[in-house]
Prior knowledge:
By secondary structure, this protein is mostly helical. The protein has 17 helices and no strands.
Amino acid sequence: MKTKTEQMYATMNPWRLFFVVALPGMVSMFAMSIYSVFEGIFVGQILGEGAFAAINIAMPFVMITFSLSDMIAVGASAPISVALGKEDHETANNVFTCSVILVFLFAVLLGGVIFGLAVPLCRMMGADGALLDTAVRYLRTFALCTPLSTLFFAVDNYLRISGYVKTSMVINIFSNVATLGLLTVFLLFCKMDVVGSALATSIAMSVCALVALAPFVFKKALLRFTRPRFSRAMLRQICACGSPVFLNNISGRVTSILMNLSLMTLGVKVLGEGGGQTAVAVYAVLMYSSDLCWPLLYGISDSLAPALGYNWGAKNYGRVKKIAGCAYIGTAIVGLVSTSFLFFFSGTVASWFVKAEDVRLLEMATAAIRLFCFAYLFRWFVVTTQGLFSAIEKPRQATLMSVCTAFVFPVLLLGALWFLGLDGIWLNFVFVNALSGAVGVYLLCRLLREIRRRQRQAAGETEPSPERT
């Protein structure tokens, strides 16, 4: 007998499903990013350009600690959803249990490695002196909290699969409220530097991770903890389905490292002594301003993934196309609004993160945002298409898009646009998403042909044979 959540995935009107699932998902993801935006505001307005640059140098390595968690969580989500679509609850619960254990164990390992290598990693990015010291302390604070904080992102996926969409939204909102409260206490009252920022985020995420685990521990969710049964086949499946997200994250972090190194070089060349720190700070402003928009795209894509995976597993391909159509329309609207907002209010957005007296940084950040914002004219399609392939267990296609978007195209364009100086860095994001969108169109056309073929085969199987008529 299907549960209420499974009935919703199988029968609810696609647009009603969109509003029931995707809108809370958008709010949830946006809430997760608000702390990042406010962190940027706090750091930029209170600590200044040096702290801004230090955080941006350390951030790629911070995100690497979360990448493995994302790979396991997203990689497990697809087979869990497909298993539920086949009404195989035993397999779904086992994959869920094993994935939570894997997230925790790998977080302990990776956190220890990052902590031990913090100094050479930050020095590799070109940091030295006070900049190096600040970046190392920020990175090590996150590394110490990794085992619990990384669980937050993983468990959030499982809450949505189990139908706890509103619960996920509330927990994410609480996480951000707690982070903002702790940022205020640590930075304004305790006069801490970037360590206070890292602590605020880590503590809030760790507490919320434990709260989010409660429905599963007390067996109130669709998914439940069971005695884990690890197998090579299961691990391969998790790695295959999670590899697009993992490669996207890792490739993106490698690209960020290359971007930072390029910015340190171009900044000095274009702006003179100290220009590298300024250029990196502008890049940080772009990343923080992007946090206003990209969570809405990923919120739609991630929230509808369980429904897509469930119906793909149930071989309800017509419903898969309808749900995916809702996702594309929703993300297209978000992409257009995001581009318009960042373009017309670029100066306002930049002023949130930059002190008024830092005139050069403010002018550069405003101009950079006006170039960077056009990436969202294509980004919505890339995100939705990649999410669709991941949801229906098409890891090769999703991985191809991930690697192209996060590494191949950015690196190639980094060299091709070098003659434009710093403007070439900001335009890199626009051309990357345009090229990735072209790849997505090709792959999506192939998927639609496959769906039509499967629908014809299914129709042939259900037609009565001439002998029986």
